[in-house]
Amino acid sequence: MKNRKFLKVIVLLACVVLTAPAMAQFNLKKAISGATKVAQAVTLTDDQMSEYVKEYIDWMDAHNQVCADDNAYAIRLKKLTEGLGEADGIPLNFKVYYVTDVNAFACADGSVRVFSSLMDIMSDEELLGVIGHEIGHVAHRDSKKGFRTALLTSALKDGVSSQGGKAATLTDSQLGDLTEALVNARYSQKQECGADDYGYEFLKKAGKNPWAMALSFQKLKELEEQSGAQSSSKLNQLFSTHPDLDLRIKRMEERATSEEIEKPASSVSK
What we know:
The protein is built from 11 helices and 7 strands. The chain is mainly alpha-helical. It has one domain. The strands form 3 sheets. A 3-stranded mixed sheet has the order 3-5-4.
């Protein structure tokens, strides 16, 4: 595995998002139009939403290198997520993208995608905390609301087409625009904190040390600093509408401390 000391960091915590023989960069098709897109008063049925979500995640899986079941990354993820069948009634499924970006995301249908470069820097408990956070967005329906907004302001900005009540298939261009909209989407601070708390409880229920939430955020903070990002950079712009990492680290540390949970010995001196 190549040394990826200065990995490009995209904030976890959003439903975000070249096929190549070796590890590729996460596939992001740039939007063709830079014009401001305003959501229209369009009615989408739950069935149509489900169809669009499935079409999107199928497209994402086809356009990014998915690790095979016998790949070490896939084996590790399967072991970590064993027994995780649903979140608030939504069935879950997991895959690994073999890409250079440090990220993970979840869609409204329960599809959770973890990037291999994230797995490279996280311990099992830290990774499980991140996964728990993403599942939290699904369980709280944040992913569904965010997807609907992105869909109506990008791929369906000109209205919804249907065929006998069934959602019309999106073109590659529309799917690319949707991906761009999802990458640029932001959860509210309340939603992010709610997902953080979900991840914390998720770790406790799994019998894991919830300090892993704070420690995973700390690793992202270190990567952010290593990148040398300036305040105007794309990296910091991605953080701009989320609670900053210092705040999130503090929240999780204070919660674990108040519950008198011992911090892992390997991180005490850091």
